[in-house]
Design brief:
Helix content is about 45%, strand content about 30%. It has helices at about 10-25, 45-60, 85-95, 95-110, and strands at about 1-5, 30-40, 65-70, 75-80, 110-120. A 5-stranded antiparallel beta sheet has the order 1-3-4-2-5. The chain is globular.
Length: about 120
């Protein structure tokens, strides 16, 4: 069963919410996707606030065009879309994002993996 709250969605909700239309119409072609996968240790209210802040910051100030996350059991996946690798690098260097990464390693995640890929179609 998927855990759903204001920061996460089920995969079916993700595609019903318009991401599938974006793929079909080619809106994401030529962009970059950052895929974040993690095994959850423990999520708390600080996590929820940080997740919301990071999502808003990425979209409002760093050029992220779409950010979607979902959890299932003790696993989380988040996919964000970016116009260039330079946007991703700038986001990665943001001090608030670096603090969120530190807290993720220390408190919220047992393990995680980040992949960056170019969207071909």
């Amino acid at each position: 069963m998927y855990k759903v709250n204001k920061h996460t969605k089920t995969l079916s909700a993700i595609f019903a919410g318009g991401l599938n239309v974006m793929f079909q119409k080619g809106f994401l072609h030529g962009m970059y996707a950052v895929i974040f996968r993690a095994e959850i240790k423990e999520l708390d209210s600080q996590y929820s606030a940080m997740a919301e802040r990071m999502r808003n910051l990425a979209i409002d100030e760093y050029g992220c065009t779409e950010f979607t996350a979902c959890t299932e059991g003790n696993y989380e996946i988040a996919i964000s879309y970016w116009p260039s690798q330079e946007h991703i690098k700038a986001w990665h260097s943001n001090p608030e994002h670096q603090e969120a990464q530190k807290l993720g390693k220390e408190k919220w995640y047992k393990s995680y993996q980040v992949q960056v890929t170019k969207v071909l179609r």
